Every structure is written in structure tokens, then in C-alpha cells.
Amino acid sequence: MKSKIIVLLLSAVALLLAACSQGTSSAEEPKVLRLGHIQSESNAWHKGSVRFAELVSEKTNGTVKVEVYPSSTLGSDRDLVEGMQIGSVDFALVAGVMSNFYEPYSILELPYLFEDLEHLEEFVYGENGKRLQEEMLEETGVRGLEFWLRGPRELTTNKLVESPSDLRGVKIRVPNIEASVEGWTAMGASPTPMNFGEVYSSLQTGVIDAQENPIAFTASARIHEVQDYLVKTDHVFGYVQLLMSEKAFEDLTEEEREAVLEAAEEARNFQNEIVFQEEEEALQDMLDQGVEVIEVDQEPFREAVQEVNEALADKYGRELYDTIQEMRE
């Protein structure tokens, strides 16, 4: 009888130790969060994302792990935003498509809104940019962590374009953003909203004739292999946002949240340092591949979109539009 009691006690102790061991193991497992974007692994977005993941791991002592999924692995821009809203995606890099979820962002997509890169930086890194992100969070459940800079958007085409009149009949791919559609229509083109992943094949088969993006974006997708001209329109000085699902943010401890915010700022600085160097390298690659660069007088393009800009400012946020315009002075 004594021996049976001893066996039972030893078994109970073993089970208790196993349970404790499992509990300890589970507590030590990191929180795994997913970050998606639409760019290739050669792009500055991806390099910045990888750096962000490294910084989060360092600053949380490994309690939070960020896995990076490039090249639309987790879906398109819209898919990523919707994923953050329901909690299936934790972080994403998203540019103008955010305007489909919070309308005031449409103002930032207006062609020739910003005079230059410095004008953009003054806005996004100032109080106005912070307030816009706070309002977006309340409306969408998606938290804006940081704005990352991009090179200006330029036109690529298989037709020589030197003025808006040359755009007549040109089928141009644009993101599914009203400001882009209306702006290019005003400049004379025939815009076609399309996911970026379809652009190369659509240019190759003649479904579209042109597209517009920052030079590094264009080069990383090898778009210049199926385009003859790069037209320096500088029509949008833009950004991409590092975004986070508020559901994921709330699941972190206070220390982990602070670590994520610090990592986001440092990753922003890292990405901003390399993005324009990559623009120069990408431009040289395009030149080496035989693309012809066309320098144009941008004023006729700018004048062509002013009525559209005024109309969309009234629709999406006259106060925000006027604030940005006043920053020119």
C-alpha cells in the first residue's frame, strides 16, 4: 500500500512539474507579428522593414518577433489595410491607397500638391502630419507609426511625351485613387486603375501604354524592360506609411509598445537614408538598359490639374489643403 501511495505521489509530482515546464516554455515564446508590403526584396521598403524587425527584436529582448512578407505575399495594399483592421495582418507599408479608408489622405495624393521634398517633410513630420495619423486611427483602427520618404513619381511610357497634349489616348495605369484618376484625366491621358502586380504584363501585352511611380519602384519591378521613356514630371512627392493594427498594438505590454515606437523611428531614419541613393542607382540602371530620360517643362502639367485639385480639396478637406498651400509661403 505504501509503495502504491509513493508511486501515485511521484506521478502527481511529475505531472505538476511537466505542467509548470509547459507554462514556462509558453511564456518564453515570442509574440510573432507579420509585416506585409508590395515591394520586392531589393527595394528600400523591404530593407527598412527588415531593419525594423531587427530593432523590434533587440529592443524587446526577443519577446516580440516581426516576420516580413514582401512582394504582395500577404495581398495588395487594400488587402493589407483590411487585414490590419480585422487583426490578420499586424504591420504594413501602405502609400496612397490609405485614402480609400480615410478620405482626408486623398488630399496628399493630389498632383503637384507639394512643391518639393522639403515641403512634404515639413508637413508629414510636423504637427499636421501627427494629427492626421491620430484622426486616421480613430476612424479606421489602423495606427500610423511613421512616414517614410519616397522619390517623386515619374511617368514611364512607350510614347514620347513632352507636354499634356502628348498624353491624348495614352492608357496609363494608376493606383485606385480618385486624385490619380482625375489628375491624369485632366492632363489628357486615359487612366486605368490596376493592382501594381499586373502592370508589367499589361505593359508587355499592350493593355496599357504607361505607368507612373518613383524611379526605384519602377526599376525594382523591371518596368523599364517594357517602356522606352522616363518622363520627369515630378507630379507627386509622396510617402509610404509604416502602419500597425491597433488590435496588435493593444496586445503588447507598455514596454513592448514603447520599443515598437522607437524601432519605427529608427527604421524610418534608416530607410530615408538609403532610398534616394537607390533612386540614383535605379536611374542609372534604367539608362544602361536604354531608357531615354525626357526633361519636361512641368508648368503646363501643373496648370492642367489645378481645377481638379480645387474640386477635390472641397470634397476631401479644404482646411488641410489650404494648410499645405500656406506652407509654400
TrEMBL record:
Residues 1-27 form the signal peptide. CDD domains: PBP2_TRAP_Siap_TeaA_like. The keyword DNA-binding does not apply. GO terms for cellular component: outer membrane-bounded periplasmic space. The keyword Coiled coil applies. InterPro entries: DctP_fam, TRAP_DctP, TRAP_DctP_sf. Residues 253-280 form a coiled coil. Keywords: Coiled coil, Signal, Transport. One of its GO terms (biological process) is transmembrane transport. It comes from the Bacteria. Belongs to the bacterial solute-binding protein 7 family. NCBIfam families: dctP, TRAP_S1. This is C4-dicarboxylate transport system C4-dicarboxylate-binding protein.
